[in-house]
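Is histidyl-adenosine monophosphate placement plausible here? Inputs below.
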Amino acid sequence: MAFRAVKGMNDILPDEVERWQFAEAAFRDAVRCHGYAEVRTPIVEPTALFVRSIGENTDVVDKEMYTFERHDDSLTLRPEGTAGAVRAYIERTTHAREPVSRWYYLGPMFRAERPQRGRYRQFYQAGCEVYGDKGPTADAEMITMLYDFFLSVGITGLDVKVNSLGGAVTRQRYHEALTEYFRPRLDQLSAHAQTRVEDNPLRILDSKDPKDQKAAEAAPSILDMLDETDRDHFSELCKSLDDLGTPYRVDSRLVRGLDYYTRTLFEIASTAGELGSQNALAGGGRYDNLVQALGGPSVPAIGFALGLERLILAIPAKPATSSSLCFFAPLGAAAARRSLVLARDLRRRGLVTEVDGRGGSLKSLLRRADALGARCAVVIGDSELAREAAIVKDLANHTQGLVNLSILAQFVEKLLKSAANQSSGEVN
Ligand code: HAM
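Reply from A.M.:
I modeled the complex. Tokens:
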């Protein structure tokens, strides 16, 4: 029987990995220059951590967690990174050592959602969390960092939405106002939304069902219910975004699916690339009460996560650029042995080099060099060996020359470095 990967969980093969590494490196660069440092937390956490932080009546906790029992504990594969980061922040008493912490992470998350393009059961997130800064300038800085990051990797058609949920009291008042609004309109709602009216009516505002969207048209706006300090926080955030020139729009229907949020909420979507309907690239917000709710001190926090699969779908595919691979095509056993030594010398200079020692015709070896996208091929047969030389083929410019083996390393290094300079910053 042939095994298949678990539904909704993908292999990332070497020919795709280059795009991943490009995206991950660009993310690390973007956040490092804002002072973030990496945190790595376990993939498995106590189930109760997610129930307490994400909330019992959310889709994630209600339907999507991979939960199992081991040694009498209930454990869950993390559906997101914030809960584990907060747990680590509290457990390691980070607040006692530094007033502000800026953490970032990259890694797999697990949600048993219905798989489709851009939505998977194992997916990768890159995220940031800031502890100890109550904003609103920190909020504007984070949104701008994320927006600029997307621009820097070439994503177009960006749509930045911001909203405020107010504090816990406002949120509770809004919950009640929405329940009152939807209760007499039950028959106008989808079957799923009907089950949410009492326990989590905010989720109805998020529904993609046109029926729910129509029914919610005249629903009260959270922005009308904010108290004065929440309103000030939100208008300061908008002013800072204006100062920074970050384009955004206020969307009072933006609620997001996790219960820990307070005040600032944001989401960035894109119409670009091959995203399709799952076009939310990233989402986040403030969660000023969560550290305390999980047993820590009262420390304000804000964060976001982006989906790496979606990011990669949205990054434009660039035309193939000349690579910096040097391919050795030895003809015969003696040439193959000599190629090993020559290739080792190239690698000691940090050059990417592959020796094809399978034998076979020059034609078949060069076909493979082409398939690998090699920048140059070094061909050595018995007659070249006798002359202590090799034929170096510049595969991009279709030229070739005989090069003495004593200067082969310098010659190839120069060729590859000039190719790398022409293509720096581009993705294959
Ligand atoms: P989230 O909105 O649930 O937020 O997820 C953030 C991003 O992860 C989404 O915008 C999307 O790009 C990606 N994503 C979510 N689910 C899937 C999936 N099934 N398949 C592929 N990509 C997916 C959070 O997770 C919060 N922890 C963000 C945060 C950090 N808030 C504060 N700090």
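Short version: The first helix runs from residue 14 to 32.
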